Structures are given as C-alpha cells and as structure tokens.
C-alpha cells in the first residue's frame, strides 16, 4: 500500500475515489478497512455531514424518526456495495479452503454461500414532527443567549464602578460598613434580579424553546449563569476606577469569555478541553445550549434524570457544575484582587496577605504600634522644634501651650494623636510629598480648624485619618486605636462630611439618614427619632421625601453634614461643610457645629477665614505638607500680627494733610495704597501709644472739613482735610497669608490687575478682528486631540481593545481542530452501554419463517435472537400500506416488511434493551446465494453496515462450519479533501464575521459617550456660546470619530491577512470588504449621533447605544441567517431583509457573513459574483444611501 501511495502521489493529477486495506487475511479473522473520498458524498449546509462522518457517538438515542442521511451516505457512496463485494469474496475464498466435507450434509455443502442480494430499510417510527428550528438554531443559540444577558451585565459593571468612582463605596466604609456586608448586599441584590429574569425567561420559553425540558432545570440553568456572571463582573470591576472605561472594556471582556466556545463546540473535541474552556462561564453556558437543542429536537427535553447523558460531545451536568464552580472561583479571585490591586482610595494589601494575615497577628501588631507611639509621644515638643519653612531654613512652628485638661486627655487617650505622619506619591518622573512629618493633636470638646492653601495636604491628612489612603510613614491614634491596624474599630465612631458629596441619587433624604443611622449602630427603635431630630437640626424637614438628585448644592451639603452627625459619632471630620450654602444656612450650620462639639472631637477644614475664626477653638495652618502653627485665633494674631491698618478718605485726591498727620504721629508708618481719595497705612503695634493724639488731630480735621462744606467756604489747598477714617487690627486672613507663605503686596496686586485688564481688552479686540469661522473645526479637532492625549487609557480602549478582542477571537477560531476522521469498527458492542456495562449486544429481531433463516441465526454473534411473532396490531389503512410495500419491495418481501414493522411497533417495550436492527431473510437461491433485508434503527448512523457485517460473518461461519471465523469491517475515511477544508474554512470565516460584528459594536458606543458627556456638563453649550457654529461642532466630531474608527478597521484588515481569511481579503474580495468597513464607519457615526439626543447621562447612553447596535446588527443578522435556512421562512426573510438593511449594523454584519458563506450556495437568486445583490451588493448600496441621508 505504501508503494502504491507513492506512485499515486507522483501522478500529475492525483484523484482517488477509495481504497480497501486488509489488516488481517485469515485464517480465522478477516479484518479490512474501506476508505472513501469525502467529496464523493451527499452533503448540505449547515450540517457538513458526509459519508465519512464517523465523529460523534456510535449511537444517538436522541435521534428522532427516520434520518435518511446515513442511508444516503452509505448507499450512494458505494460503501455498502464495496462491503458486499469484499465480504462475498471472503466467504467464497474461505469455502474454497474447506476440503473436508461432512457426508451427512453433502447437499448443503455443495452450495457456495454468497450474500448476493442485500437490502436496507429504516425502522418504522411513530408519528413525529421534526424540529428543524432546533437543529439550525443549535449553531447560534449560545451567542444569542449571551447577548441577551449583555445589558444587565453592562449595567452591573457600570453601577459597581460608578460607586467606586464617586467614592460612595469608600464613604460607606468610612461610616463603618464592613467589606463582607457590602459585597453580600451587591450579591443578594443582583441574585434576586437574575432570579426574576430566569423565572421570566423560563415562563416565556416553556411553550416553545423548552417545551419538553424540565422547567425547574431550565430555571437553574439560567440562574446559575446569572450567579457566575455576577462574580465574573465583580472580577472585571476590580481593574477599573472609571465607569465609562469599565463598561466598554468590561462588557467586551465578558463577551471574550464566550470565544472559546468556537474552539471546543465540535463533538470531536475531548471533554477535558471542554471542561478547561468552561472555566469561563459564558463558554460553559453556551455549551449547555447544545444539549437543550438536541434533547428538545428529540421531543425528550433535558431533565434531572437524563442531564448526565452527553449529546453532541457535551454533558449538561458538567456545564451546570462548571458554572457553579466558576461562581465560587470568581468570588475568591474577585475578593483577592479587590484587596491587592492598587486603587485611588483605600488601603491595598500585599499580594501574599492571605498566607500571613490572621486575627492574633493583627492584634499583636496593634499592641506593638501603640507601644511605639507612646515612645514617640515623649518627644513631641522636641520634634516640633525641627520644622522647615518655605525657604528651606530651620523654623520653629508656633504652637500654643496646652492646658492641664488637654494633657490629661492625652494621658487618657481621649484625643487624636498624629505623630510623624507622612504621605509620599511616587510616579515615573518624581516623588511628591503631600504630607511631611505631621505632628498634631486634636482634643475632645474642641473644634480644630485646619487651614492651608490648595495642595497644602489637608485632604490627604483627612484621607489617611479615615482610612482612604495608607500612610507612607508615621501613624496616628484615634481614642487609642491605631489607624494602621484598627481602622474597622475607628470607623464605628467616625462621622465624615467629605469635600464632595457622597450620596445616592435615587434615595431620598430620609432614606439616606436611615441607612447611615443603621450603619452606625443606632438601635432600630431609635432610628426614626434620630432621623427626625437630625432633619430638624440641618433644616431639611420640608425635603424629607425628596430624592437627592432634586436637591440643590447647599441642601446636599446639609444632608452630608447630617449623615456625619447622626449616630452620636465621637469623631467628626468636616471637610468644607458650608461650601455652596447661602449666608443664612451657613450661620445656622455654624451654630449646629458649635452645639455638637461637646463630647466629640471635631476636625474642620475650610477656606473661609471667618468660619475658622468663629468656629475654631484651635486653628492649625499647614503649608507644603507641614504644620506651620497651631493655637487659638487670638494667639495666632498676636504671634503673626503685622500691626494695624488705618484707612482715611480725603476731601480731594491731591490732599496731603492725611499723610502729614500720620507721619507726624507715627514716623514708622508704611503707606499701603493711595488711590483716588482713599489712602491706607500700616501702623506698627509698638506705636499704639501715639494713636490718641493722632486720632484727636484727625477728628478735628474731619470736623473742620465738614463745617467748611456746610458753609461753602474754602481755605485753599491747605484747608482741605479728611472726610472719614477707620482702623482695623490684623485679620486671620492676613495671618494665614503670612504663615502659609502666600503674603502679597497690595500695590503690586492693583498694578497687576490693571495690566491684566488692559491685556484682556487688547486680546479681545485682536480676536474680534482676526476670528475666522473656518478655524473653529480645527480648534475643536485640537481639543479632541488634547483630550485624547490626556485620557490615553480611554483612547487605547476605544481604538485597540476591539482589535485585541478580534485577535483573540480569530486566534481561538484558528485553533479549532479539524482533524482527519478516525477509523470506526462496526460492532454491536457499542449498543446498550448502560445495561451491559461496557456495552454489547442486545436483541436482534429475526424473521425465522424460512429454513435458511434458522441456519443463519444459529451462527449470529453479537446479540441475542428475538424471534418475530404474529401480532394483532395493524397499521392504519392496512390495504394501502400493504399495496405501498408490495409496490416498493415486491410481492414476496412487501408483506414480510409489513409484518416485521408491525412487530417492531408493538414489542418495543418487551425488553429493557434497545434494538438497533432487524433481519428478514429471503429463500436461498438455487446457486446457494442468499439475500436478506436489514431494517436499521436511525439512532445509530452505522447500524446498516454493522448488521450487514454481522450477517455476513454469520454466513461465513455457516459456510465454513467454523464458529471462530469472523469478518471485521472498518470505516476509515480518507484525509479531508481541499473542498472539505474549504467548507470548514468558510464556517470559520462565518464565526469570524460574528466576532468582528461584536467587536465593532463597541466603537459607536464610544462615539456617544463624548457627545452626551459634553452636553451633560454643559461643555457643548459653552462652545456654542463662544462662537462655535453647529456645523463646525458636528463636522469636527464626525471627522474625529471617523479617524478613530479607521484604526481598528485597519487592524481588522491586517488580521484577516495574518489569519488567512481569504473570504474577506482574497482575490476580488478585498475591495468589497474595504467598502463595507468604510461605509459602515461613515453611516454608524451619523446614526449614533441621532441616538444621543435621547440621553442626558453618558453612562446610560453608552449602555443603551451598545445594546441597540447589538440588536440592529448582530442579532438581526442571526435572525435573518436562521430564517434563510428554514424552507418555510425563506420568502419572509427575503422581504424582511429589505427593512433590516435600513440598519447600518445589519448591512455590516450581513455583508461580512455573505462573503464568508458565498461558496456554500446560501444566497439563492444570485450568482457567484462577489458584488451580486444578495452577496455584498445590497449591503454596499444601502450603506452608501445611509451615509448620504444621515451625514451631519
């Protein structure tokens, strides 16, 4: 055979129909294989079954009714003819070797037994309806179900990351919420939602898709996937801190979990690979749809009693178990990643914390830290002596001496002790020290006002105290508990009013206060009373049932203050609590803060010097991350006071009397300003003794000026005096400016303002004369480019993530195995495996009415003979049935077939074992040849050749009188031909078209985000007010979005070349593919802009636009694909496609799918041309029209 193969390969046009290979040639075993060519077969799309299809189970009890494909495969290919010829020759040759013949059987042995006439017919079946829909939808059901879950998954990801982005999660933690309670609340909430969804899906589909399956199992199937999807989404959210990015990339990542399905859905793929792929729950979920389709088509349904039985190489029980395992696995991975991944807020754990973290270790660490703090406490004043001022020179911060009561609080631990606390931010370029060795103590019954310029370290200090940020070094004790190790305990008594309101937009004022009262441990009976009292205190009684989104900014601050104060927290941290309030609300808030300070430690930050002066028992000023001073307002004014400020109003601009009086009494006075009739001086504190005489002279001058004005007299220039005057002591603002290193020269400030006004007027005038409307689009494009450069992560996700998703999908499709089919040995040992251990045998129904049948039946091996007996049952319309049988099989065989069929129909419950074949033998011919008919069960695709092999082996043993002789026949298809490889590649290209459509559905969703967000924050309105025309705005947006669309399109074309997808980039296909991509980009951008007008929030717009493009693109294409295959819906599909093509997404998906399946004869009514109307012509034309109609 090897030499023949070599000669065959050297042929100029090598073609082979088939081959027969003998493995054993006697004397007792004749073993041979019949190898035929794949293309020599009956085949059809989408089932690429051929005569050589030996993959899948040997028997399939789910096969319903008569399956003519195996009959056609084995019959039309010539396989059965070759089998008969070879078996006849083996029997003839074996008889020639028999020389010793028994005299008693001379008449029988003179004949040469030979199976000359063999017929096959299918088993009779009950009336049934073949569910063609389930057979076809089986190919695409997985992706459709996954897309159905896409919107709730995207919302889950969006809401979860939104809480992180808005610091709601950390705000709840600050109020004492436990990690496990937070996660459990999310899990329970979405578990209920998915339970309701699963129930609705089960109720809706119980009469159509899942008519025969157990409804409770259907519910469990969808619910388990919902649970695993929750946990998979939890893992995804740990990597993101921005909801916009998380929705785009997270949803795409969720879909990526479905891609391995395209690699492992083939029945030939080993179960172990399916299990490994099922570690991604979308893949496990999609594999389960295969079982549903098989069992529903068989009118059996998936039930608790049969879910462990595999079909199409998939075990439904394994799918369920893997989704449960995935849920637990994702939960553990998500909790771990949430602890160790770096984040903007909160403390990250080391990667190995699970191996060393335990309660006793935590406790000992706390005690150790407390001991260290006590050692440092003795050095507090010495440490304060070594502080640096802004210029870098040594400076001693001014700290007011504390009272005995404060010292006692330090000893009792009734204070907050901050010791050597530092926070350093490190990036690639430099290190930034936000807080530098801060030493500070906050006392009970006092309000400490913490002041500092922007970036001084106030918010960073607060973030470390409440556990939002981990300290780089140092620590702090809050009522004796260390912020490094006891933050959970500290937060139980912590009330925080953050700088930015951390509120739930959907909850009312009352619901907020009730929630945080419960979190802070208020007893259930007292919650209502506490909420009512707090509503009165903060002045929100009339807004008790108003949702937060309807509140003004000042009211939200009042609610945040109420949340901080409710629950009798011992430590209150207020970060700019009165920002956004009107003067009346501000004063009432001051009174409330003063009222609640008793028994509490209150830390207040503010930029209002009046607020700090009124509320602060002690005031601390920070500068560049360090403490500059700390003490009462009076102490700071005395410490850093610069004197008094005297302001006089002259009767005339040029009068010099005021200056002369001031310098005569206070020679060291400094003139600050002299503008118009107003002049001001700074007077040293030491000159206060001269004020009395100076004021007397000023008063006399003032009275004389008034008298002269009333009498209308004039004393000349020298008589011009002073109209009024005033004096003020150093303000806290001046102290702050001086201490914080931000003191300014008022004269320079005035001069600078004048110069600035002049410059602005010049610029305005110049721009008025040089403004060019044509420059607006350019400026807007520059704006988008700068925004993209600043938000690199979003741009990378928008441009490259779809390409990466496409690469992974195409890679997995490429890795899908297409091996040559293996050899199958025809044997009855594959029958009844559940009842026979490893399988084997079963009843062989045999018509023994003829003598030769009795002889042959005695030599049959591989089962037991079930004798046909007469039955009273008759087919409906027996005369017509008999006439049909006689017309087909002849007058002798026809009645026998009817009799056998009636017996099979009435005896199928008489044995626990399934029957896969029945035999009717003819009378022996005069030349000794035999004829028989095999009735085969269509649930075994190899039943006909198996029973032919069984009968011919029995005839061999009868002819040779040797029970050890047998014939073993194998079906071993030849390697796949180029046409079959082409068919496989076209199917892979169709999968690639689906993956491309999924990837490119995310790009228009990113277009919507920027547009809606600009409208949401009023940026678009501002641009239009600034002179940007509507045409310029939309033109620049359209241009930028089209350019951003071209990048992933370019990557997609490159990937088509890399993976050898000639269906898209082969000869004559590249131009249509490029046109489809380009026109889709132009059309989809415009249609997305139209959708954006329905949204006011960019996160909602992103989710809904994504869902709309999925539905109008991929889902419509899949619906049209299925309808185009089903014969009864082809006409309706042709009509509906004219409406479907109004969607750019459908044209894109259908165009690519048509290119992939062009060679499979799917597009009826058109030729093989690539640009034919039903291939790509319609998609290209419709997209072109849509571009013209929807362009901005």
TrEMBL record:
Transmembrane regions: 142-162, 183-206, 218-239, 246-263, 275-293, 314-337, 795-813, 989-1012, 1042-1061, 1073-1095, 1107-1126
Gene3D superfamilies according to UniProt: P-loop containing nucleotide triphosphate hydrolases (3.40.50.300)
Keywords: ATP-binding, Membrane, Nucleotide-binding, Repeat, Transmembrane, Transmembrane helix, Transport
PROSITE patterns: ABC_TRANSPORTER_1, ABC_TRANSPORTER_2
Sequence similarity: Belongs to the ABC transporter superfamily. ABCA family. CPR flippase (TC 3.A.1.211) subfamily.
Cellular localization per UniProt: Membrane
SMART domains according to UniProt: AAA
InterPro entries documented for this protein: AAA+_ATPase, ABC2_TM, ABC_transporter-like_ATP-bd, ABC_transporter-like_CS, ABCA, P-loop_NTPase
MF terms (GO), sorted A to Z: ABC-type transporter activity; ATP binding; ATP hydrolysis activity; lipid transporter activity
UniProt membrane topology term: Multi-pass membrane protein
CDD domains listed in its UniProt record: ABC_subfamily_A
ABC transporter domain mapped to chain residues: 416-649
Cellular compartments per GO CC: membrane
Descriptive protein name: ABC transporter domain-containing protein
Entry annotated with the keyword Cytoplasm: no
Organism, as annotated: Papaver somniferum
């Amino acid at each position: 055979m090897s030499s023949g193969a070599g000669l065959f390969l050297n042929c100029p046009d090598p073609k082979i129909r088939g081959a027969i290979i003998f493995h054993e040639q006697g004397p007792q075993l004749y073993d041979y294989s019949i190898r035929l060519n794949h293309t020599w077969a009956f085949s059809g799309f989408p089932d690429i079954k051929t005569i050589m299809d030996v993959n899948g189970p040997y028997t399939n009890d789910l096969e319903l009714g008569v399956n003519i494909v195996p009959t056609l495969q084995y019959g039309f290919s010539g396989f059965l003819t070759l089998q008969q010829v070879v078996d006849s020759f083996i029997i003839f040759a074996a008889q020639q070797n028999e020389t010793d013949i028994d005299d008693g059987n001379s008449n029988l042995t003179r004949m040469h037994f030979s199976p000359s006439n063999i017929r096959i017919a299918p088993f009779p079946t009950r009336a049934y309806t073949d569910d063609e829909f389930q057979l076809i939808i089986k190919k695409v059901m997985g992706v459709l179900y996954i897309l159905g879950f896409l919107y709730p998954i995207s919302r889950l990801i969006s809401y979860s990351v939104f809480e992180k982005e808005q610091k709601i999660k950390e705000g709840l933690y600050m109020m004492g919420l436990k990690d496990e309670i937070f996660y459990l609340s999310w899990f329970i909430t979405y578990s209920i939602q998915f339970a309701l969804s699963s129930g609705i899906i089960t109720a809706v589909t119980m009469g159509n898709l899942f008519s025969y399956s157990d409804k409770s199992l259907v519910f469990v199937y969808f619910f388990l996937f919902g649970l695993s999807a929750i946990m998979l989404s939890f893992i995804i959210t740990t990597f993101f801190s921005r909801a916009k990015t998380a929705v785009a990339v997270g949803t795409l990542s969720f879909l990526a979990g479905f891609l391995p399905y395209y690699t492992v859905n083939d029945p030939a793929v080993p179960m172990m690979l399916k299990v490994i792929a099922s570690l991604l729950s979308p893949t496990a979920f999609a594999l389960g749809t295969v079982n549903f389709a098989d069992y529903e088509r068989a009118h059996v349904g998936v039930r608790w009693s049969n879910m462990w039985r595999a079909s199409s190489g998939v075990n439904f029980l394994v799918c369920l178990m893997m989704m449960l395992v995935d849920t637990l696995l994702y939960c553990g991975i998500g909790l771990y990643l949430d602890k160790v991944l770096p984040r903007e807020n909160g403390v990250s754990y080391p990667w190995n914390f699970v191996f060393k973290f335990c309660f006793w270790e935590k406790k000992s660490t706390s005690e150790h830290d407390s001991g260290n703090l006590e050692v440092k406490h003795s050095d507090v004043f010495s440490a304060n002596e070594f502080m640096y001022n802004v210029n870098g020179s040594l400076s001693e911060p001014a700290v007011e001496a504390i009272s005995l009561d404060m010292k006692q609080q330090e000893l009792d631990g009734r204070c907050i002790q901050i010791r050597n606390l530092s926070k350093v931010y490190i990036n690639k370029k430099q290190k930034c020290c936000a807080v530098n060795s801060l030493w500070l103590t906050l006392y009970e019954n006092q309000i400490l006002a913490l002041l500092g310029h922007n970036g001084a370290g106030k918010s960073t200090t607060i973030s470390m105290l409440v556990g939002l940020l981990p300290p780089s070094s140092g620590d702090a004790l809050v009522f004796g508990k260390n912020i490094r190790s006891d933050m959970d305990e500290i937060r139980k008594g912590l009330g925080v009013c953050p700088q930015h309101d951390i509120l739930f937009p959907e909850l009312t004022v009352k619901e907020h206060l009730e929630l945080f009262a419960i979190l802070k441990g208020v007893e259930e009976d007292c919650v209502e009373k506490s909420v009512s009292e707090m509503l009165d205190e903060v002045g929100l009684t009339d807004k008790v049932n108003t949702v937060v989104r309807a509140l003004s900014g000042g009211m939200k601050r009042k609610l945040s203050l109420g949340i901080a104060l409710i629950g009798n927290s011992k430590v209150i941290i207020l970060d700019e609590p009165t920002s956004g309030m009107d003067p009346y609300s501000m004063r009432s808030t001051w009174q409330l803060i003063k009222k609640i300070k008793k028994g509490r430690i209150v830390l207040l930050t503010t930029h209002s010097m009046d607020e700090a002066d009124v509320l602060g028992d002690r005031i601390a000023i920070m500068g560049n991350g360090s403490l500059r001073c700390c003490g009462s307002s009076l102490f700071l004014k005395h410490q850093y006071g610069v004197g008094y400020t005297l302001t006089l109003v002259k009767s005339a601009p040029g009068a010099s009397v005021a200056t002369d009086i001031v310098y005569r009494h206070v020679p060291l006075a400094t003139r600050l300003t002299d503008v118009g009739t107003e002049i001001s001086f700074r007077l040293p504190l030491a000159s206060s003794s001269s004020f009395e005489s100076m004021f007397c002279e000023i008063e006399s001058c003032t009275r004389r000026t008034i008298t002269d004005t009333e009498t209308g007299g004039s004393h000349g220039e020298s008589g011009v005096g002073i109209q009024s005057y005033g004096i003020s002591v150093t303000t806290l603002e001046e102290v702050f400016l001086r201490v914080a290193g931000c003191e300014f020269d008022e004269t320079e400030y005035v001069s600078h303002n004048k110069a600035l006004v002049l410059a602005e007027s010049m610029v305005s005038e110049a721009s008025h004369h040089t403004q060019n409307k044509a420059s607006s689009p350019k400026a807007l494009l520059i704006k988008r480019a700068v925004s993209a450069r600043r938000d690199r992560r979003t741009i990378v996700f928008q441009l490259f993530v779809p390409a990466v998703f496409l690469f992974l999908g195409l890679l997995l499709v490429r890795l899908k195995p297409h091996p040559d089919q293996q050899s199958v040995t025809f044997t009855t040992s594959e029958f009844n495996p559940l009842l026979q251990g490893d399988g084997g045998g079963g009843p062989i129904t045999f018509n023994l009415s003829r003598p030769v049948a009795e002889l042959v039946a005695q030599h049959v091996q591989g089962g037991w003979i079930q004798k046909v007996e007469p039955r009273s049952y008759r087919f409906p319309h027996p005369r017509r049935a008999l006439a049909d049988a006689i017309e087909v099989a002849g007058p002798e065989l026809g009645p026998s077939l009817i009799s056998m069929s009636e017996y099979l129909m009435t005896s199928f419950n008489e044995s626990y074992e399934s029957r896969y074949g029945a035999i009717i033998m003819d009378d022996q011919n005069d030349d000794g040849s035999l004829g028989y008919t095999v009735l085969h069960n269509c649930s075994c695709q190899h039943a006909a050749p198996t029973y032919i092999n069984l009968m011919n082996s029995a005839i061999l043993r009868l002819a040779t009188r040797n029970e050890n002789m047998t014939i073993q026949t194998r079906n071993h298809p030849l390697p796949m031909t180029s046409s079959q490889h082409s068919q496989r590649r076209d199917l892979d290209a169709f999968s690639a078209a689906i993956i491309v459509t999924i990837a490119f559905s995310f790009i228009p969703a990113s277009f919507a985000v920027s547009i809606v967000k600009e409208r949401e924050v009023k940026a678009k309105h501002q641009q239009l007010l600034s002179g940007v025309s509507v045409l310029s705005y939309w033109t620049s947006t359209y241009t930028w979005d089209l350019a951003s669309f071209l990048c992933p399109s370019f990557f997609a074309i490159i990937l088509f070349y890399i993976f050898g997808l000639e269906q898209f980039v082969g000869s004559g296909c590249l131009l249509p593919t490029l046109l489809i991509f380009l026109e889709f980009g132009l059309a989809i951008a415009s249609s997305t802009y139209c959708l954006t007008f329905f949204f006011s929030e960019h996160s909602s717009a992103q989710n809904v636009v994504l869902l709309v493009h999925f539905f109008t693109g991929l889902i419509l294409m899949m619906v049209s694909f299925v309808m185009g295959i089903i014969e009864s819906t082809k006409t309706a599909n042709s009509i509906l496609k004219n409406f479907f093509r109004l969607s750019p997404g459908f044209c894109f998906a259908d165009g690519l799918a048509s290119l992939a399946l062009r060679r499979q004869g799917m597009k009826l009514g058109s030729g093989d041309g690539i640009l034919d109307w039903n291939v790509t012509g319609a998609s290209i034309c419709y997209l072109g029209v849509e571009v013209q109609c929807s362009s901005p």
